[in-house]
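Figure-free illustration: sequence to structure, shown twice.
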Amino acid sequence: MVDSAFELSAGASDLLSRWLEGLKGLRDASPHTIEAYRRDVAGFLGFLAGHWGGPAGREALGEITTRDMRAWMASERGRGIEARSLARALSAVKSFYRWLAETEGIEASAVTATRSPRLKARLPRPVTADAARAMISDVPLMHDEPWINARDAAILTLLYGCGLRISEGLGLTHAVLPLGDTLRITGKGNKTRIVPVLPAVRNALDRYLTLCPHPATPDSPIFRGLRGGPLNPAQVQKLVRDLRALSGLPETTTPHALRHSFATHLLEAGGDLRTIQDLLGHASLATTQTYTGVDQARLMEIYSASHPRQRKS
């Protein structure tokens, strides 16, 4: 958060805007990621303005010291910022300063040499298979409109049944229809993976598409809001919050927890770890093997035998 007493100087604001525009053009970053970078770096620049007692202009940015960096990190910890969030903000600041060094010739060594805070290992917290099924079954209690209930059940079934990130699910268009036995997903880093589609997923999606009142072209998003625009991730997050409150589930029950549940339940049911890692398309889990190294027949065999939604079909 930018210190309200010290607005960004015109020069700093211009540099920040140019950097963000460059990120949009060069990186496969979502608008949410770009906005997070903007907040983190704007907050850092706001701190510097307060710390230095004046605007953090272009010349001042080149005079930053390791002492300034330590003061910023101490200030963030004092505000209760957790190590993981501070590490993310530091990463954004370093990226900004590397760009400043390349494009403006600004000295960046004090920033780039700053060590990231140590992070505790954070394990995913999946919901149980019964809880996942109960959440989907409770969707009709959330809304009076049948097509919206069908939509909500379809997106949750897709996240859990295919292990998708929420952005991947909401990013699907009618071009992928009709669904076959597999679905090609382009995820983070523009990496493509193939995920099998269970009958339960296909049935939930077919029911929603039958009821959805909005016309569609191949480029139209599958999941639509009330007025026909793309469904907002915040609406899915609110849906899950309401469902977990109804069922008494913990706050760790989020749309992303359904993705972790997908992996955990397959593994617990005897799925092959490497195959599951490839299904997730998660760089931290599968850095040495791409999906093309997995036999597709074996993939479908493991998936069909292991996934709880398949066994219920």
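We now fold a second protein in the same way, so the two outputs can be compared directly.
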Amino acid sequence: MTSHLRVADANDVLDRLRLQFHAKGTQQLSDLDAYCARMDTAGAGTLTRKELETCLNYFGLFPTTQDVGALVRSFGSTVGSSSSIQWRPFVDALGGELSTLREEAVRHAFAAVPSGSVADVAAAGHFDDHPLAARGVLRGDDLRHAFAVGLSKATHGGDANNNVVTWPAFRTYYASVSLAFAGDDEFVAMLRGVWRPRALHVAPARGIFGNKRSVLLEKLGQRTHKEENERDVLMRALRKHDASESGFVAPHELQRACEVLGVVVTMDEVHDTFAVGTRDARGKLSVAWFADFICADSIA
């Protein structure tokens, strides 16, 4: 198997795991990091396949044997052939980086918090206005406690009363919970509700597919020939990127297909589309649904 295919397979699995994190509202990627560290009793930085499955299962994630194999091939101690996985690079890849919009929002939130210890900052938060509290998933006090514990970890200490909260620690904490929010708007709304910074405004509402439907439709029209219509062109492009040949695509596959057609979409815009579209049990998007959405007004 080529390195290109190994990366593509691993990206597929990471996309599915991220969608499951979104759906479950998992609070902290750092909890997965800490759990992996506990499982790594030898401190070698690696886990066996079974240990990796145990870690993921603990957080309600149940990848298939093939999925685990793809991860081990990509993040194994011997690239392409290994019986163990380097778990920290895997966890880092799963979390990704804060988008520019999210980092800016976190910076505004930090500017609104009082200077002081972890306990002082936690006491100032309006956690009853956190989305999970508003939906009745968790109590505000439970979210406050989870915040204090997570922020203490980010300060590389365990004393919530003495650790002074710094910008790097605050950013590290919110990078670890960012995965629980599929869209930027939801993430920004959470920060706005908990910290109420004057400088933080809700991001303008985006339409499905980042309001780029008409742009893609125009690009498709430029590629039609003979008896083809725009939907035919789009379906052909999507099938080329449907690695599983199942009629469903992962987020990065949809993004690549659109780029080939000449339309650049961000991963946030892709996830917004996935949130409203028809998906299978693995979280992949139906190519037929997407083609119908894009081309509904272009064909008879």
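Summary for the second example: Residues 6 and 74 are 6 Å apart (CA to CA).
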